[in-house]
Structures are given as C-alpha cells and as structure tokens.
Amino acid sequence: MSEEYKWFLKDAVVDTGMCTLCGACAAVCPYEIIEFDENGPKLKEECYRNGEGACKDVCQRVMTDAARISMNVFNFKSLPPTSIGQYQKIVSARATAPSIAENGQDGGAVTALLGYCFDNGLIDGAVTTAGFTKPDSCIITSKEELMDTQGAKYSAVPVMAALRQSKDELKNVAMVGVPCQTYGTRRTQFFTGLNVHPMEVGMNGEKADIPNIPYTIGLFCMENFNYEKLSEHMKSIGIDLDKIKKYAIRLDVMIVTTDDGEIEISLKDIADCVWDGCRICRDAVSKVADISAGHVGSSTGWTTLIARNDKGLELLEAAEKAGYIETVDDVDISMIEDFAAIKMRKFNKELAKRLDDGKKVNFYWVRDYPGVRPEANGTNFVKIKTNSGIVQHDYIARVAELAEKYGDGSLELTSRKSVEIQGIKGENVDSLMADVYGSGLKTIGMGYANACPGMDYCPEGLVTTKDLANELTMQFAQKLTPHKMKIGVAGCPNSCVRAESNDIGIVGQLRPKIDTEKCTGCGRCSELCKLNAISVISGKAVIDRDLCINCGWCVRGCPHEAAVEDERGYSLWIGGNDARRPTNGVLLKAFCTKEEIPALIDKVGKTFVKYRTKPGKERLGNIIALVGEGQFISEVLKE
User: Fold this and answer.
1) How far apart are CA 214 and CA 216, in angstroms?
2) How would residue 68 be classed by pLDDT, with cut points 50, 70 and 90?
3) How many helices (H) and strands (E) does the chain have?
4) DSSP for 63-115?
5) Which of 269, 340, 592, 623 is the most exposed place for a label (fewest CB within 10 A)?
6) What span, in angstroms and rounded, lies between the C-alpha atoms of 490 and 597?
C-alpha cells in the first residue's frame, strides 16, 4: 500500500467523491508531485506546504467563484446565472473541409475552429483529449496533430495536467474541455485577479509556468465515465477496445463505432461507471467558456456553437468568414435548456441523496451567484442591494420573508447599506436565489457606492447623493470590484459617510462669496463658521479661502442674504481606505461637476491597474503612495 501524504484536497474533495479529475491541481503545483490513477489525483511525495497551496486555491470543487470569474470572462458585463448561461450568439456549424466534417464529432466544428487558430497564428498549441483505446490528456502543437484528436471520449481525464507538458516555445495554448475543466481553467487563468494572492512559488523558486490561454472552448457534457469501469464493461459485452473509432451519446444510449460497425449501449447499463464527481455536477453547457459546443439543439452532422463573449464571437465569425466553418441559425434553444435542466435535476437528486446519507458535501457552487458568500459556521449569506440605503417598504418586506423562509430569520444592515439575509444552508441557495430574482430583488457584491442622505433628505446637504451613488453603482460596481475599490458620496463637507476614507470620495461643495453691498458686518456668518474662515474686517465679511471648506453654512445663516452661492459641485478625493494598510485620501480635484465624475473615476481605475503589480495586496492608496501623489494625479488629469 502506497504512503498517503497530508493533502487538503484529498480530505475535502477526492475522498468525498467531489473531484471531477479536471487536472487544475496538477497544472499549478510548482513541485509536480500530483499524479493520477483510476481513483483520481494523489500526492506522490510529501508536500512542502502540507497540501495547502495553489492546488487548493484553484480547485473548482472547493469553490467555482463563477460570479467573479464571469466578470473577467464577460469583460465586466456579466449577468446573473441562467440555465444555459450568458451568450451573444448561438448557431449550428460544421467544418467545410469534408475530411474534418466526416471524422469529427457532429460536423467537426471545434476542430475547424482550432485549425483556423493554428493557421492564423492565434495559438501555437491546444490542450485536449486524445485516444479512444486509452484516452489521455495531451498538448498538440500543429494542425496535423489536431486531426488525430477528433471526437468525444466520454472518459474522465485530467486535461489541465497537460499544461505542464507545454514546451517553452508554446506561448499561446487553447483549452478544450468539458464544463468542470473550463472552471478549472478559469480559476487558474484569473487566479491573481480574484483578489487573492500571487500564485505559489516553491521553496527553491520553483514555478508552474503555464502558457497564456487565449481561447477556452467548452464542450456540452451530461456526465463522464471512469475509464477503468467503462472499458471493463465494454470488454464484457465483446467490444474490442483497439477497434473503437468514435463515441456518441444520443438520448439514453451510447453509440460506439468500431471497425466492425455500431454498437448501442443503454446508459442505464453503464450508470455504475459514471465518475463520482460527475454525479454532483450542475453545468451541462460550459457556461464560462469563450465558445461552448455540443450536438444538442442542432441537426445530425452539425454542432451547436454558443459564442458567449466578444472573444468567442470574434473567433466564430472570423472562422466562418475565412471559410473554415459554415453556420445556420436553425438552433432549437429550448432543447439546450431542457438538456441543462436534466442535468440540474440529476444534480439535485444526487445532492439530496448525499445529504440524506450523511455524506460531506462541498457547496462549491454558492458563489456562482453575485452577492452570496459563505459564513464561518458553514451556512451562507446573500447581500441584497438597496438604492444606497433607500428601499420601499414592500421591497424590504420581501427580503424579510425570504430571510424567514430560507435563512435563520436574521438580517444584517451592512456599513455599505445593503441588507444581508443570514444563515442560508448550501442546499437552499438555488431556491433562495430563484425567489430573489423572481421577487425583483437585486444582489450585489462589495465595492459599490455608499452615500449619505444628501440634500433630498438632509437639511445640511448641498447636493443630491443617492441618485449619483446609484448611477455610479451601475457603471462601476462590477468594473471596480475586482480591485476592491469603494466609493463614498457625501452631501456636504460634514462627510458623514467618511468619503475621504474611501478609495473614491465624492463630497458636495458650495463655494460662497460675499455681496459687499448687502453685507452689514453683523458677524453672524463668522459665528456660524466652524473653521474660523470668516472675519469681519472694516465692517465687511471676508472669507479666508485657505480655511474655507465650502460647507455653505454662511450662506444658509446670513440674515441679510449677503453670503451667496458662487458655485456648487463636488470635490473628488482618491486613495483612502481603513483596511489592513490604511491610507488617507488625497484631493484629486477641488471642484467638478456631476457629469465629470464618471470619466475621472474611470481614469483613476485605469491608472491604478497600470501600476498595480500584486493583485489582492494593493489598494488604490498604496499605489498612489508608491507612484507618488503628484505623478498619479497628473496622469489621471492628463487629457
């Protein structure tokens, strides 16, 4: 019996039957000590970090984190989850080259797309699965090798592990895999942008040098099989594994094409061969891929292609324009939705069974939804958005109803004016979120605009705040959240929301001036000024601009209407935070209009990203201090 080493994933994922064999753990291990057998991954020697390093960080069965991954995949335009995921275009496609169309799976569209990428220098490698007799992950480096890997294999294979086989000269490598492998790819690809920490470096400087992944093509998948069990079953019914040329699953049968013809196998007969981790998978259509591909929804001999983002759409259209594929719009989307629904029903049945049997379940999917986060005791909370603190009574009543129905009945009002439903069990998250969206409620993560009541509610407010905060939330909540950039909007220099302590602080300003013809020198303004910025000299009020903070108290309190408004607007502060390494905000612009603010915030964000080197470890104020206030501000304000 081989020695077993301490490993977080063994206890939390592998031994609990959650592992999908995606291979991400092996791809990122700097020591290359993870290997695979018929039971899944295992350590072949002791881990320097006791099995709690990058492998744990990228495992999509610990947490998919799809809500934040989707911000990157969809260029900060991600939408709440749906049954078949977010997309821009769905078509039926097939390769125009007869050799590819005839030998490929459902018309060979995926092979044709990769062929286009190779021919046009978009990739110099692709990771996929090869071999029917004994499927295995591989990395191909030419269009010619591509032809040898056509067709679905339906065996669980650690595809991502092949990334470690990539040669130094391979700079851009496409990934082709089933849904779990696309999540593993995305967690690896965007790891450093998920507000975590840099990728693991070994004790002697070892690194997992993974090439750039320009395209991720995800395959439709209902389930995959344990190769050892499946091959034994096939041999038991007389199938010669060396003669297998193609697999296909249609409805409830697997069709195995061999040199001697086609053999149909009922999926019921091979149900025991399904890989354990596949039984509790919930994505049938690779929702976070650039392009998803499968036979469902299209006619025989055609592939359904779902271009999910700009990159995927551009590749699909370019390949068609260049003559590599032909497409038609005749896709039955309802069939894809039914296909996805079947997988969810299987997932829910398996989840219920595991919970009834008392088995440990990792609720890896809860962060597929924006605003849902795990709690310390194993339950979850969901953050419900308000209009910067303002809600209608019926809105908050619905929140309360859901808290009683799905949570522990408690609500928390957060410092950034959202409402959190507490104590939600993992098995209830899907139902809760269906009710949240069905009730017209909205969820939100961190990093959005917080505002005081402003002039609409507060007598001391100089400007409106709630509308501005809500507008900025819609424009920047997703875009700035990965960098944890918080916005505070104060209606006056009292700054009850501590705007200057936010990454972006916006403060209402009223610049006063004195009408000397009306001023009697009574001194009322001087008495009201809390900064001693007004003095009466030679019978007239005089404002010291170095002391004045533009609060407008003198204007409100002057009995002769001699202190009047000169201009009204906002001051903009940047770089404040009260986090681990607190920083004080600095004044970016003393006066600006409401219309100027979005463009200035956008410039601040871009300048921050330009100089940031350690995602997850640097807030805006830290970068301003590193670059220098003058340099940073000049770059932001430069036309």
Assistant:
1) 7
2) confident
3) 19, 24
4) ---HHHHHHHHTTT------SS---SEEEEEEESSHHHHHHSGGGSHHHHHHH
5) 269
6) 14
Helices (H), 94-223: 98-103, 109-119, 143-147, 179-189
DSSP letters for 591-631:
EE-GGGHHHHHHHHHHHHHHH--STTT--HHHHHHHH-HHH
Say how far apart CA 616 and CA 15 lie, in whole Å: 31
If you average pLDDT over residues 268-295, what whole number do you get?
Answer: 93
Strands 253-258 and 261-266: antiparallel
The position carrying tokens 């029917």 is 132
CB atoms within 10 A of CB 415: 8
Question: CA-CA distance, 58 to 32, in Å (whole number)?
Answer: 15
CB 94 within 8 A of CB 110: no
| Distant-in-sequence, close-in-space partners of 297: CB < 8 Å, separation ≥ 6 | 90, 92, 304, 331, 332, 333, 335, 336, 339
* % of the chain with per-residue pLDDT over 90: 65
Query: For 357-378, what is each residue's pLDDT tens digit?
Result: 999 999 999 999 999 999 989 9
Q: How is residue 52 written in tokens?
A: 């709690």
Using the 8-state DSSP alphabet, how is residue 571 labeled? E
Coil, strand or helix: which one is 558?
A: coil
DSSP-assigned states of every residue in 442-481: -B--SS-EEE---TTT-TT--S--HHHHHHHHHHHHHHHG
Residues 6+ away with beta carbon under 8 Å from 15? none
**Could you read off the pLDDT of 162-219 as tens digits, one per residue?**
887 666 678 899 999 999 999 999 999 988 777 677 788 888 888 888 889 999 999 9
List the structure tokens of 296: 């469902």
| 594-602 CB contacts, 8 Å cutoff, 24+ apart | 594/463, 594/468, 594/569, 594/570, 597/468, 597/472, 597/506, 597/570, 597/572, 598/471, 598/472, 598/475, 598/476, 600/572, 600/636, 601/472, 601/476, 601/480, 601/487, 601/504, 602/476
Task: Please state at what angle helix 597-611 crosses helix 620-627, rounded to 10 degrees.
Answer: 70
Distance (Å, whole) CA 497 – CA 638? 29
Matching residue, tokens 């424009």: 475
* pLDDT band per the 50, 70, 90 thresholds, residue 150: low
Contacts of 319 (CB under 8 A, 6+ apart): 112, 113, 116, 325
pTM of the model: 0.87
User: Which token pair is 225?
Assistant: 């099989």
**And the tokens for 182?**
């696309």
d(CA 388, CA 375): 24
pLDDT at 224: 85
Of 169, 211, 216, the closest CA to residue 22 belongs to 216
Amino acid at 325: I
Coil/strand/helix, residue 30? coil
**Count of other CB atoms within 10 angstroms of residue 409:** 12
